[in-house]
C-alpha cells in the first residue's frame, strides 16, 4: 500500500514491524473527549467545490442540498472515495433524504462504508443547527469518526468540518426529545471542529467519484 501523498508518511503512518516494508499502519493522532482514539479520515480537498457546483441551482433558489460521504478502510485509516447525491427533498433550512434503500443498495454493492455527510446552508452561517445535530448523531452512533461538512457559500467562514463531542454532545443529543426545527441544548460544547488537529486531513491528489442517485441525474 502506498500513501495518497508521500509527504504524509512521516506524519500519519508507521511501518508495521511484522509486515513487508511497503505496508503501513496509520497512527491515530486525535481522540474523543472520553479518550477513545479516532482513526484518521482522509478527505479529497476538491470534494467541497465539486459538491457546491452540483448544489448551485438549489443554493440560488435558497434550498439546501446534501450528499453522503462514502469510502473504505485501509491500514487503520478511512478514505473518502465517493460522494453520493441521494434522492432528496429540500427547504431553505432542511434537507431530507428519500428512497434510502437505493442508497443502501448502492453502498452494499460497492462495498462502501458511510463516513459522514455534507450539506449546504444557502443563506445561513456555517454552524450545526439542532436538526443537523440530531441528523449527525445517527451517523456518529454507527461510526465515531463520522463527520458533517457544512458549506455556507455566502458567509464567512464558508465551510467547516464537525463532529459531536463525546462527552457531552452525543449523550445530550441522544437524550433530547425536543422536535422543533431549531431548539436549544443545555450544553454549550455539543460539537467541535474535526479538521486537523482533529482526525480529518485533506489529502492532495486523493481521487473520488461522484454518484448522483437523484431521478434524472443518473
TrEMBL record:
Gene3D superfamilies: Cytidine Deaminase, domain 2. It holds the Pfam family JAB. One of its GO terms (biological process) is proteolysis. One of its GO terms (molecular function) is metal ion binding. InterPro entries: JAMM/MPN+_dom, MPN, STAMBP/STALP-like_MPN. Keywords: Hydrolase, Metal-binding, Metalloprotease, Protease, Ubl conjugation pathway, Zinc. The keyword Isomerase does not apply. CDD domains: MPN_AMSH_like. GO terms for cellular component: endosome; membrane. Its cofactor is Zn(2+). Residues 41-168 form the MPN domain. It comes from the Eukaryota. Coiled coil: none annotated. Belongs to the peptidase M67C family. This is MPN domain-containing protein.
Amino acid at each position: 500500500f502506498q500513501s495518497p501523498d508521500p509527504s504524509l508518511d512521516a506524519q500519519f503512518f508507521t511501518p508495521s514491524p511484522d509486515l513487508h516494508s511497503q505496508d503501513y499502519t496509520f497512527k491515530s493522532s486525535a481522540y474523543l473527549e472520553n479518550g477513545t482514539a479516532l482513526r484518521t479520515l482522509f478527505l479529497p480537498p476538491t470534494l467541497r467545490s465539486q459538491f457546491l457546483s452540483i448544489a448551485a441551482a438549489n443554493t440560488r433558489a435558497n434550498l439546501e442540498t446534501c450528499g453522503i460521504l462514502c469510502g473504505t478502510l485501509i491500514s487503520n485509516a478511512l478514505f473518502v472515495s465517493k460522494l453520493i447525491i441521494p434522492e432528496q427533498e429540500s427547504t431553505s433550512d432542511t434537507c431530507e433524504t428519500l428512497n434510502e434503500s437505493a442508497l443502501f443498495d448502492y453502498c452494499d454493492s460497492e462495498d462502501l462504508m458511510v463516513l459522514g455527510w455534507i450539506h449546504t446552508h444557502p443563506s445561513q452561517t456555517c454552524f450545526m443547527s439542532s436538526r443537523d445535530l440530531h441528523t449527525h448523531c445517527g451517523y456518529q452512533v454507527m461510526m465515531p469518526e463520522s463527520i458533517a461538512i457544512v458549506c455556507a457559500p455566502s458567509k464567512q467562514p464558508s465551510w467547516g468540518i464537525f463532529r459531536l463531542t463525546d462527552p457531552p454532545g452525543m449523550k445530550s443529543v441522544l437524550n433530547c426529545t425536543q422536535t422543533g426545527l431549531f431548539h436549544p441544548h443545555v450544553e454549550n460544547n455539543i460539537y467541535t471542529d474535526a479538521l486537523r488537529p482533529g482526525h480529518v486531513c485533506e489529502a492532495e491528489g486523493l481521487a473520488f467519484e461522484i454518484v448522483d442517485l437523484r431521478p434524472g441525474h443518473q
